[in-house]
Amino acid sequence: MESQAVTMNNAMEPETKTINDYLDIAKRRKWSLIIPAIVVFLGACIVARVLPSVYKSTSTILIQEQDVPVAFVKTTVTSYAEQRLQTIYQRIMNFSRLQEMIDNFKLYPDLKKRWTPEQIVGKMREDITLELTGSDVLGKSTGRRNETAVAFTISYEGKDPMTVQQVVSKISYLFLEENIKVRKKQATDTLQFLKSEMDRISENLTDLDVKMAQLKKEHYNELPSQLQINIRNLNQAESDIQRLNEQLLTLKEKEGYLQVQLAGIPRRIEEAEKNNTRLEELKMQLAQLQSRFSEHYPDVVSTKAEIAELEKREKHAPEKSNNPGHSDNTPDNPTYITLSAQLSDVKTDIVSTRRQIKESGKMANLYRQRVGNTPKVEETYNAILTQRNNTQAKYDDLMRKHMEAKVAQGLEKEQKGEHFVLIDPPRFPEKPYKPNRLKILLVGFVLAIGSGVGWTFLREMNDHSIRDSNSLTLATSFPVLGSIPEIVTEEDIQRKKKKQILITIAVVLFIASAFVSFHFFVMHLDVLWLKLMQKIPF
């Protein structure tokens, strides 16, 4: 009972596969393993054979730096090579140019009946590849390492190796030609732009010169350069006015003094002496009368009246002499004449001084007005002068840049600037670029083994047949008491031999197909044999 329980426990444990079990499965399912593997591998061989050969040709173009040192000549083409390269690429990849190449080289003849021209041109764009080759360069301004393109490659894929080479040659030539055109055009456009700007700035300078000349002409005496002169003249005029006023005051005092002196001097000498003698006589007579008679005596009264009349006449005599309308003759008193001449000169000087004061006042007002207008004129003058200086500086800068642009244009015409150099012309492709038939065969071989193993595994998983005592015990939960070995008849032996022959033939065909595929799709066997013989040392 104990042994039966142990047997029952062992029967209940999960079955563990051994290597012999897997070998038995392989023997039992050999056709499920071989047939799918052969079918898949033959399919891979057919795919490798049917896929068309695609050839690829490549050219390498170097981005040559400027031949002349940048310290001596600076180019006006300041765009990076990568940007310019993308611009050229877009120009070459336009519809008209690609359509022209398609027509010239008779490309894609099998697609012209099924595709539109736009689709064919799009297919050609996909077949053309542009790749940049960079290099780490230490930046001069930043001090950091930047990746800069030093070369680029152009590739084209197609079915005809000769056509592929010709297309790459044409595209390479277009890149070289377009780069020269782009650089020359940019240098020429820069030169023309600077020339037009110089002409415009020159016209502005001319207009400013005309404005400045007009301002100087209209406000010559009010310019900032004349300010000190105007101030000095104003001070001089004010000083002259002060001096002339003092001189006028002195002349007026002298005039009054002369008039006082002239009033006490008789105009004529005879009349003065006669009046003086008569006055003396009357005074003596009055004294005698007053000694004998009273004040009311008629002779005393008449004598006093006559004396008073003479004194009054003597007093008014100079005023009459000074009156031009007086009917008397010309004065003959030398003292009177001298003083009268001095008085006349003083009056003349007074008139002249007053005229000078008036003129000096006018000049002072004029200089004062000039000084007052100078700040406003100076503001306008400085605005025009600043604008002209800025315009002149801009013109000088444009002139310098124009001269540099001329030199840069010569640099581009001589192709001494940055240019493209074809260092590796497109070669004739001797072997197809794709498909990689060896890879297809290897993948097909792996898939063939996987498909055979997978199909065998599926068959085995879906087969619930009992083939040994352990499987029977697991299925029924009863121990197996005994087993009958396989009975092999003569017919079974003959059938087994036939199967072995068929398996041998299938394996031979599989190996032969592998060698044939390798010979036709990868490498000729004689070439492989020669390479192996060269590597084996004797």
3D structure, described in words:
The chain has 15 helices and four strands. A four-stranded antiparallel β-sheet has the order 2-3-1-4. The protein is an alpha+beta fold and 538 residues long. Helix 7 packs antiparallel against helix 11 and helix 8 packs antiparallel against helix 11 (334-413). The longest helix has 80 residues, at 334-413. A hairpin with a 6-residue loop joins strand 2 (128-138) and strand 3.
Put simply, the count of helices is: 15
What does the average pLDDT come to?
77
> Which residues form runs of ≥5 with pLDDT under 50?
1-14, 137-145, 324-328
Q: What fraction of residues sit in β-strands?
A: 5-15%
The description of the largest β-sheet is: 4 strands, antiparallel
Number of strands: 4
Order of helices and strands: HHHEHHHEEHHHHHEHHHH
Give me the Rg, rounded: 68 Å
Q: What order do the strands of the largest sheet run in, or round the barrel if closed?
A: 2-3-1-4
Tell me the helix content: over 70%
Shape: rod-shaped
- Which oligomeric form is depicted? single chain
Structural class: alpha+beta
End-to-end separation in angstroms reads: 73 Å
Summarize, please.
With 538 residues, this protein is of the alpha+beta class. It is built from 15 helices and four strands.
Task: Give the helix/strand layout.
Elements: H1 2-12, H2 19-28, H3 30-50, E1 55-64, H4 81-92, H5 95-105, H6 117-127, E2 128-138, E3 145-158, H7 161-218, H8 227-263, H9 269-292, H10 298-322, H11 334-413, E4 419-424, H12 437-462, H13 469-476, H14 490-522, H15 525-535
Antiparallel strand pairs: 1-3, 1-4, 2-3
Helix pairs in contact: 3-12, 3-14, 4-7, 5-6, 7-11, 8-11, 9-10
